[in-house]
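Extended Data, panel c. Modelled sequence:
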Amino acid sequence: MRHLARPFAVALLTICGLVLLPICCAAFAQEPVEVNGIAAVVNGDVITISQVQSLSAPRVKQLRAQFTGEELEKQLKAARELALKDLIDRQLVLQAFKKEKYEIPDHIVEERVHEIIRQNFGGDRNTFIKTLEAQNYTLGEFKQKEMEQMIVQAMRSHNVKTKNIISPTKIEDYYRKHRDEFTSKETIKLRMIMIPGQKDTATAPAQKALAEEVLGRLAGGAEFDRTAQVYSEDSTRDNGGDWGWIEHNTLAGPLEKVAFNMPVGRISNIIDYAGNYYILKVEDKQGGTTKSLAEVRADIEKKLIQEEAQQIQERWIASLREKAYIKTF
């Protein structure tokens, strides 16, 4: 066996600084489950059903609160399949580490444990040990789990090399194709008057004439809210036609097109839609502005670097899978 090569060791120490999770969530998420069968075999190493259950438990709990019946069963199956895939990938990474004849010095694992005790138990080792015992874990088992987590993180960092610089052309292309990501949600504060096209006490031409009369009153300076209370016949009449703040896809298409393209304070012409007559007023607008490329360049570059790293990692894991004997049950 040989100790980690220097670049690999640096990557390991860097990763360890990033994954100090509160009391190692995976280890303490629930009581250990008794081994009750084989879920998969990876190059001779066994992954148990209980390991799959343990890893998928938090997600399963969420799904049971959200779904029922056939949809729940479908979601549970997908969650367990994903957990099994993650465990297989993890085992392949651990095997790759062993094949390279690397080893992690004991002092690195000890330093990791000390850091957990310091951050999560105020430096009280006795409380830490009692917590392990309460969860039916030995200190040795806990150290093994931590070492495996460190190995997986460090091996991924070691094998996933990215360029840390993305070409300006790629950044500009992403910005052009994903402008919606950098545009704030547009909302308008709207008032509306609706006059039905037909009424038991009036003919259609009379209703159209009424709509024109109402528009004339508004053009002459009449208050929109008071006019709505008198003439409008939609559900917002008593509130002076006030629809409050609305987003896109709230109104019917023809009404939305007019409303979201009107200047603030302007009163629309009569809109003839679905046999009724509408008059709109936009009182205020928010959002709808797009950040400049200069404002988001750094964020785009970071995202593209992360996407590249993910793609490289997936290719690396795929190559490990291609060379492995994997059987699922």
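The CA atoms of residues 197 and 207 lie 6 Å apart. This feature is highlighted in the accompanying rendering.
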